[in-house]
Amino acid sequence: MSAPAVGRLEAVALVLYAAAVLLCTILVVGYRDLDFVGALIALTLPWSLATIPFRWSLIHGASLWLFWLVYLGGGAANLFLLHRYLPWLYERLRRGAGN
């Protein structure tokens, strides 16, 4: 099955999502700016839930590489899923609005 064609609106949404995940990851993990941690967790759901058990280890000085991996990997997985299913979702919403 080939990837669906992506229109301009979908492409803009995907780029904005990827930029938001990357920016929040850099701010939270790179600069330890905890003001954006809620946004980062929300952006990378459900993958970010895997980091909750590791919070204790982070408080006690664990490396941040696991968090980089989970947040960026989760963002990439969500980006792939959005790319695959966003056109389908738009079409379904258009059909539902037409009834």
Q: Could you describe the 3D structure shown?
A:
With 99 residues, the chain is mostly helical. The chain has one domain (8-98). 70% of the residues lie in helices and 0% in strands. It has four helices and no strands. It has helices spanning 8-30, 37-43, 55-59, 65-98. The longest helix has 34 residues, at 65-98. It is elongated and about 55 Å long. The mean pLDDT is 82.
Give the SSE map.
Layout: H1 8-30, H2 37-43, H3 55-59, H4 65-98
Helix pairs in contact: 1-2, 1-4
Estimate what percentage of residues fall within beta strands.
under 5%
Sketch the major β-sheet: none
Please give the domain count: 1
Helix tally? 4
Give the key terms.
70% helix
Summarize the structure.
This protein has 99 residues and is mainly alpha-helical. It has 4 helices and no strands. Helix 1 packs across helix 2 (37-43) and helix 1 runs antiparallel to helix 4 (65-98).
